[in-house]
Amino acid sequence: MVAVSPHAADDDYLTTVEAAAYLKLSRQFLEVARHKGDGSGPDYIKLVRSVRYRRSALDAWMSSHNRSGSEPTR
């Protein structure tokens, strides 16, 4: 498992493995979400052969999936 510093700045750029560890999701989930291209995953930056995620974008994506306890689960 990749260690991600909890004290890093919000604008840190994380690799797919680091982003997955930060979100406690699998690397495969992020890769599939990118390849689907349907917006189901967090925003990312593509640099030639590299992909990076901003920590602030990961936090925003997680917050967008926040549900109250009164909503039914599917």
Task: Provide the descriptors you would attach to this structure in a database record.
74 residues, alpha+beta, three-stranded antiparallel sheet, 3 strands, 14% strand
What's the short story on this structure?
The protein has 74 residues and is an alpha+beta fold. It has three helices and three strands. It has a three-stranded antiparallel beta sheet.
Structure description:
- This protein is an alpha+beta fold and 74 residues long.
- Helix content is 38%, strand content 14%.
- It has a domain at 13-62.
- It has helices at 16-23, 27-36, 55-64, and strands at residues 13-14, 45-47, 50-54.
- The protein has a three-stranded antiparallel sheet with strand order 1-3-2.
- Strand 2 and strand 3 (50-54) form a beta hairpin.
- The model has no long low-confidence stretch (mean pLDDT 86).
> What structural category do the secondary elements indicate?
alpha+beta
Unreliable spans are none
The run of helices and strands is: EHHEEH
| Approximate helicity band | 25-40%
Question: Radius of gyration, Cα only, in angstroms?
Answer: 13 Å
Q: Tell me the major beta sheet.
A: 3 strands, antiparallel
The separation of the N and C termini measures: 30 Å
Major β-sheet strand ordering: 1-3-2
Per DSSP E runs of 2 or more residues, the count of β-strands stands at: 3
